[in-house]
């Protein structure tokens, strides 16, 4: 299954089985941007993070590999009359569009965990460095690398099923979502299989489907080292609290000192 199939705009917009949004945190971390700045987001999805920047009058560039997610983002921009301020690029990271003079480059929601090996992360940061001005701010978040949790998902007996909950769905139906995860220390890849059970209003099972996502959790030190290797001189890690107990770090980087 490709990432496109995993990221479904309708489910994403309904907030079905997806943890809290991190947009407000990014907006407040960048409250000092001058009016009319250019904000670029990698893995922008349906625009939850960038739309508020566009509403403030900034120019926004959204990058995503999923045509369905980008299509919904474009519709939302048009619905709000913000289409003139935005450019959406279909692009598979670590590639980036040739040249976007961004004042800020955002990678919210542990986007980099979608890059399943170290060379892809290095390439992504090098490409960000290439399009950065000296004062471009790079902002990303990284989930805490939880050794005990990942260890518990490794080995022959180590897969874990966890319940995500029951969500309202189309009509009067509900979705009961659970996840089975498995971690392979040899490759560093976390494989998650999500199970969706659609229930009718009397709780009867209508249909079941599965979606898969592979992630590559990283230690924060690996991320800051990769940024430094790519030429980002100022790298700072904040332990700003994330919404609803998300255990993530916020990382700021710039090309120049200061
Ligand atoms: C969890 S969603 C986050 C969307 C948005 N940043 C937010 O916080 O609401 C991750 C998005 O990253 C995109 N994505 C993941 N890996 C990607 C890659 N290698 N290249 C481009 N987009 C990618 C997915 O298509 C999806 O839309």
Main beta-sheet strand count, sense and barrel state: 7 strands, mixed
CATH H-level superfamily of the largest domain: Vaccinia Virus protein VP39
CATH class value of the largest domain: Alpha Beta
* Shape field: globular
Structural account:
Helices cover 25% and strands 31% of the residues. With 258 residues, it is α/β, with parallel strands linked by helices. It folds into 2 domains: 3-145 and 218-254, Vaccinia Virus protein VP39 (Rossmann fold); 147-215, N-terminal domain of TfIIb. Strands 3-2-1-4-5-11-10 form a 7-stranded mixed β-sheet, with helices on both faces. The protein has a 4-stranded antiparallel β-sheet with strand order 6-7-8-9. It is globular, with a radius of gyration of 19 Å. The mean pLDDT is 92. The structure holds S-adenosylmethionine. S-adenosylmethionine binds at residues 3, 7, 21-22, 43-45, 48-49, 64-66, 69, 92-93, 108-109, 111, 114.
Offer a concise description of the structure.
The chain is α/β, with parallel strands linked by helices. It has eight helices and eleven strands. α6 links the parallel β4 and β5.
Using brief descriptors, characterize the structure shown.
2 domains; binds S-adenosylmethionine; 11 strands; alpha/beta; N-terminal domain of TfIIb; 25% helix; Rossmann fold; 7-stranded mixed β-sheet; 4-stranded antiparallel β-sheet; 258 residues
């Amino acid at each position: 299954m490709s990432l496109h199939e995993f990221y479904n705009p309708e489910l994403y917009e309904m907030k079905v089985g997806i943890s809290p949004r991190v947009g407000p945190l990014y907006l407040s971390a960048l409250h000092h941007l001058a009016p009319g700045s250019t904000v670029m987001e990698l893995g922008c999805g349906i625009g939850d993070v960038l739309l508020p920047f566009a509403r403030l009058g900034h120019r926004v560039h959204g990058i995503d590999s999923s045509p369905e997610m980008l299509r919904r983002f474009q519709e939302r921009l048009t619905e709000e009359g913000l289409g003139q301020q935005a450019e959406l690029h279909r692009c598979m990271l670590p590639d980036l569009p040739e040249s976007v003079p961004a004042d800020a480059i955002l990678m919210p929601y542990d986007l980099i965990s979608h890059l399943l090996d170290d060379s892809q992360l290095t390439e992504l940061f090098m490409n960000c460095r290439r399009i950065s001005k000296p004062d471009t701010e790079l902002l990303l978040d990284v989930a805490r690398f939880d050794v005990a949790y990942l260890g518990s998902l490794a080995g022959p007996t180590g897969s874990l099923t966890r319940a995500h909950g029951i969500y309202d769905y189309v009509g009067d139906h509900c979705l009961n979502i659970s996840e089975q995860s498995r971690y392979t220390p040899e490759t560093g890849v976390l494989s998650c299989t999500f199970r969706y059970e659609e229930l009718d209003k009397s709780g009867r099972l209508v249909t079941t489907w599965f979606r898969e996502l592979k992630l590559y959790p990283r230690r924060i030190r690996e991320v800051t080292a990769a940024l430094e290797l790519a030429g980002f001189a100022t790298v700072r890690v904040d332990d700003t609290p994330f919404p609803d107990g998300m255990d993530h770090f916020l990382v700021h980087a710039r090309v120049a000192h200061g």
